[in-house]
C-alpha cells in the first residue's frame, strides 16, 4: 500500500505496549512512529501507533521517489446509527450514573485525553486516528426520546461530555449535541455538561431557560493559562482566554458554571493551580474540582512521545512525578485512587487545591439539579391512537 512519497510496510507482530520510557536513557530514545510535522500540523498526538487489539504493525518508510511533504491529515466524520443513547455506570468515583457522548473520537486533539484508548475498539489508533477519524451518533435525538418515553424510565441528571467533548469543532456542522439538548429542554430533564469549548455559548437560548428551572449546570475544563502550552497540549480546543470568557458569559446569563481543572500534570501545569482558581473566581465561578493525569493503556506511550517532542528537558521529571502519584507505575485504575492519585506529591496537590478554595471563598457543596419537573415525551403508540 503506497501513499504519496511514503511506502507503508506491514508486518505481523504480537501486540504489546512500548517499553517504559523511564527505563531508556534520554540520548537513546528514538520515536520511529512519529509522523512528519507537516502531516500532523494542528494535531495533538505525534504518532498513529496501533491499538492494543491489532495483530499487525505498520511502519512508514520513504520510497525515495518523491521529495514533497505529505498533505496534512484531514478530519473525517462517519455517521453511527444508535439504538440507545444513554450509558449507565456504577463507578464510585464519579457523581452520576448515566451519561451521553454524542461523538466517538475528539477533534480537540488533547494529548492527555483518557478517552483515547476507546478508539482501539473501532480498530483505529488511539493516536492521530482518535482526533481525525470521528464518529457522530446519527439519530441521537430520536433514540433519546424513545428512552425517555419508556414507562420504566426514572429521571436523574444525565452527564454529557464525560468521554469526548460534546462541543468539539465538528459540532458546528453535525449539531448532535444541540439536538440532544432540545429534547432535554422540551422534557424538562436535568443535564450536566462538561466542555472546554466556547461553542457552548451558541446554545444559551436553551441553557439559560433550563437554568432558571434548575435543570442544567456546566463545567468548563481549563488545564493551563499558558496559550503556548495549550496550543501544544490541546491544539483545536478553545484558547484558555476564550474559555474564561465563556465562563463569564454563562455566569452572567444565570447558568451555573464550575471549573474543572483537569488534568493536573505533575511538573507541567501544577504550578498554575492557585492562579487558575483566582482567575475563574473573579468571573463569578463558585464551584471547582480537579482530576490528576490519567494514562491508561495506549495513552501511556502516546503521552510519553508527546513529552519527548514538546518538552524533552522536562520529560523524565514529569514521568517520574506521575509514577510517584501512581504507586510507582504510570497509571493505577483502582477506584478511589484513579482521580486523585496517592503518595506525598498527590497529597500536596490536594491540600493546595483545598486551601486555595477556602481562601478564595469557593462553595463547599455542589449544586443539585431538579428531576421533579420531568415530562416524558409521548410514546409512538400513544401518538398513533390519536388518529
UniProtKB/TrEMBL annotation:
<dbReference type="InterPro" id="IPR058240">
    <property type="entry name" value="rSAM_sf"/>
</dbReference>
<keyword id="KW-0479">Metal-binding</keyword>
<dbReference type="GO" id="GO:0046872">
    <property type="term" value="F:metal ion binding"/>
</dbReference>
<keyword id="KW-0411">Iron-sulfur</keyword>
<keyword id="KW-0408">Iron</keyword>
<feature type="region of interest" description="Disordered">
    <location>
        <begin position="40"/>
        <end position="78"/>
    </location>
</feature>
<dbReference type="InterPro" id="IPR040086">
    <property type="entry name" value="MJ0683-like"/>
</dbReference>
<dbReference type="GO" id="GO:0051536">
    <property type="term" value="F:iron-sulfur cluster binding"/>
</dbReference>
<feature type="domain" description="Radical SAM core">
    <location>
        <begin position="89"/>
        <end position="329"/>
    </location>
</feature>
<dbReference type="GO" id="GO:0003824">
    <property type="term" value="F:catalytic activity"/>
</dbReference>
<dbReference type="InterPro" id="IPR006638">
    <property type="entry name" value="Elp3/MiaA/NifB-like_rSAM"/>
</dbReference>
<dbReference type="Pfam" id="PF04055">
    <property type="entry name" value="Radical_SAM"/>
</dbReference>
<feature type="compositionally biased region" description="Basic and acidic residues">
    <location>
        <begin position="51"/>
        <end position="69"/>
    </location>
</feature>
<dbReference type="InterPro" id="IPR007197">
    <property type="entry name" value="rSAM"/>
</dbReference>
<protein>
    <submittedName>
        <fullName>Radical SAM domain protein</fullName>
    </submittedName>
</protein>
